[in-house]
Design a protein that fits this description.
Order of helices and strands: EEEHEHHHEEEHHHHHEEHEE
CATH topology of the largest domain: Ribosomal Protein S5, domain 2
Strand content: 25-35%
Oligomer: single chain
Structural class: alpha+beta
Number of helices: 10
Number of domains: 2
CATH architecture of the largest domain: 2-Layer Sandwich
Length: 301
């Protein structure tokens, strides 16, 4: 195994949106919104995190930080002792608890940082496997690492090339954790709902690949998980429909609480305005990002 690298290493990881409506835990897409993390070995013992941008006042700065925990997990997998001292400087563009894969980005950052420090003994497939063991599911981590649109199912993973898309992301100012989102789901679903979801997920992939916005607008209407989550998100159902009426294809981003809308570039302002108006009518303020998908995945410099 190679010796630890002494020079600083920078890791850049994109945001991701998962499910894309009906592709529950099986579809994810990288977006052009990034976290940047710099790792520097230090003579000062312990881990010291400096955080700017999203989550700066809320994220732990010591050994509880998820990036550090992922890094130490990779070192354990390699049978190596973690660095005795390291500085981790985080510049976060991905909002926390948003449905944009912030935890997956942190995990991938830590795993790639540790892998680079050790001379890259692990392959991208190994990194995805480790990320899934930490996250509990591989979809966001796979898209963050590889970029573009990914399909995942247990041990199988495929990237699907798609043309560029404009994306409007709207984040209502409500709290809805991943744990709450999972708890909202029923223990069982009907056979007909499962069958419809499979068909719609297949159509989502085809619509993204063919730039077929009318098809995507219908295919992203989910029946498997969104009906159980929307009642916990004031204004969301109206905001999704408002975005569709303004021309976009809208769905919860991951488990929420944010929503993602695929559209033509000329439609972004109108869609953002319509969605925010729907949230305001329900007494909820929101933030907006005008984005695009990213064919580029994580980068190690």
């Amino acid at each position: 195994m190679s010796a630890q690298k002494s020079h600083p290493i920078e890791v850049r990881v994109p945001a991701t949106t998962a499910n894309l409506g009906p592709g529950f835990d099986s579809l994810a897409l990288a977006l052009d919104l990034w976290n940047k993390t710099r790792f520097t070995l230090s003579d000062t013992p312990g881990v010291h995190c400096e955080i700017t941008g999203e989550g700066a006042g809320n994220l732990p700065k010591g050994e509880e930080n998820l990036i550090w925990r992922a890094l130490t997990r990779l070192y354990a997998e390699a049978g190596a002792a973690p660095p005795s001292g390291v500085r981790i400087a985080c510049e976060n563009g991905i909002p926390l608890g948003s449905g944009l894969g912030s935890s997956a980005a942190a995990v991938v950052s830590g795993l790639l940082g540790g892998n680079a420090l050790l001379g890259e003994p692990f392959s991208p497939r190994d990194i995805i496997r480790l990320a899934a063991s930490i996250e509990g599911h591989p979809d966001n981590a796979a898209a963050a690492l590889l970029g573009g649109l990914v399909i995942v199912s247990e041990k199988h993973l495929r990237q699907v090339p798609i043309p560029p898309w404009a994306v409007v992301y709207v984040l209502p100012q409500v709290k809805f954790s991943t744990e709450q989102a999972r708890a909202a789901l029923p223990a069982q679903v009907t056979f007909s709902a499962a069958a419809e979801s499979i068909g719609r997920a297949l159509l989502v992939v085809e619509a993204l690949r063919d730039r077929d916005l009318p098809l995507l607008r219908e295919a992203t209407r989910d029946v498997l998980h969104q009906p159980y989550r929307l009642p916990h998100l004031p204004g969301m159902e109206a905001a999704l429909e408002a975005a569709r009426q303004a021309g976009g294809a809208a769905a919860l981003s991951g488990a929420g609480p944010g929503m993602v809308v695929f559209c033509e570039r000329r439609q972004t302002a109108a869609i953002a305005e319509a969605a925010q108006a729907a949230f305001r009518a329900a007494g909820v303020e929101s933030r907006v990002w005008l984005l695009r998908d990213s064919a580029q995945g994580a980068i190690v410099v």
